[in-house]
Hints:
This is ER-bound oxygenase mpaB/mpaB'/Rubber oxygenase catalytic domain-containing protein. With 518 residues, this protein is mainly alpha-helical. Helix content is 61%, strand content 2%.
Amino acid sequence: MASTPKDGERCAAYGFKFTWTPDHLTPEQMRPYMFSYDVLATEALDVLDHADPDPVKGNISAAKQDRQAQTQGQDQQTSQSGNPDNNKPKSSHHKRDLFTLLQTHHHENETLSSLWSQIHTIPEWVDWAQIARGQLVFYRYALPFVISLTFQSLLGGMGSSRVSHTLSKTGGFSGKITRKRLLDTFQHVLDVTRDLDSIKPGPHNGKGFVSSVKVRLLHASVRRRILLLAKEDASYYNVESNGIPINDLDSMATIIAFSATVVFLGFPRQGIFLRRQEIQDYLALWRWVGYLMGTPVDEQHFSSPEKAKALMESLGLYEIDPSPTSAALANNIITGLQNQPPTFASRDFLQAQAHWLNGRELATALKIPKPGLYYFVLVGLQCALFMGFAYVRRAVPCLDERNICRMRRLLRKEAVMNQCRGVEASHGFKYLPRLGKDTVQVQDGPPSEEEEVRDLFGAAGGRKKKRRGFGEMDWSFGNDHDHGGGAAERFWLVVVLGVSAALGGVGLWLGRGLVVGV
Length: 518
């Protein structure tokens, strides 16, 4: 849009229309956020290096580190080739638990003490009862949440060319790694929604609280690494055009993607409309998570649903501008999920969901092929089923409570025990930015079993476990997923036939009654 809209003017961005208000942000108002970032976490990271040196940041240059690591790897492979036991690749990357380091040394340094004090200081706008209700909202609509977060917040979020450019530098969104990356993100969501104690600071520091701080320090590590590489090679990352890597605007967009985008876009496009109280509660939860992650969650943008919605719309209008990298990463997400447990959904079905959730214009701009009508019918049926379950359960308190307890238990079991083989996400610096390394190539297929084990347990591998479907249910309808997937589609087809048979039975019964009456 060439000029700034006036109050009351209708705006459109990739098929989404809204009315401009004083709460919306212009490009000039958003640009300063591109060059501000979480300085406190960055300074704390530098201090933590003295307590436990980071091998990524040393006295030698990053480029030399990369070349030396490659040379050492070749030498080790040559010298160990005669010993079968030494053929297993070994990771030399030192894994640090940054939260534990912060917890141990925060009293020794003023910067660490400031960060520790900040994350343990409760802002006056925090209402723990409201945040607890926000956690319940997630599990009340768990499956629509998962669909919206995956295909709109994450896949659709790749439409931001700046964000996708930064993500491509980590190498963590290739088709072979994307699924593990998404599972790590989903584990963080489950951690912050587990229960109220999990997100509260205190003597024992809940798991959601700890993982949020770890993600904050991880972002600081990635930011520092990319800036270090940019100093060595100006073509690697352009700060002037892209802003500081993982800047305040990016952080705000992330919180909006996990909150406002879901309730104001993802849910309505699935036919689900939350009550206003549910919206307020859920946004309050993610405002607190954003605070822990160093995001500017001030009154101007996050104090009400209207302000959060205005920020979401401003970002959609000015930040969504898909690039070839955006298209590559979006398609890599689909590649990483196709024919994978627990649903073993085909690529066509996943593409149909991407089109349904993001709209035709954005999906086309992301180069996501449009599948046939059959798959859109299945997605529509899925939405209808979600609508029925959502509205009925929330209207009956006993059903609502039972559903929340069941989904809370089932999602964690599926995400951690079944899909990640019991491995909890560490939120460590795993995907290391390097010169000449990115993920702009579209991958052709999902990861193999061997690659998944390596991603989960490291280069040395680990004990394989049999993958199970959603919970204890076998969604694969036999072993058909080994021959191309599509079990999710067949599941919905069975539902269609079942509903049709039920309606047919009702019709026959009514028809018989009419005949008898005559």
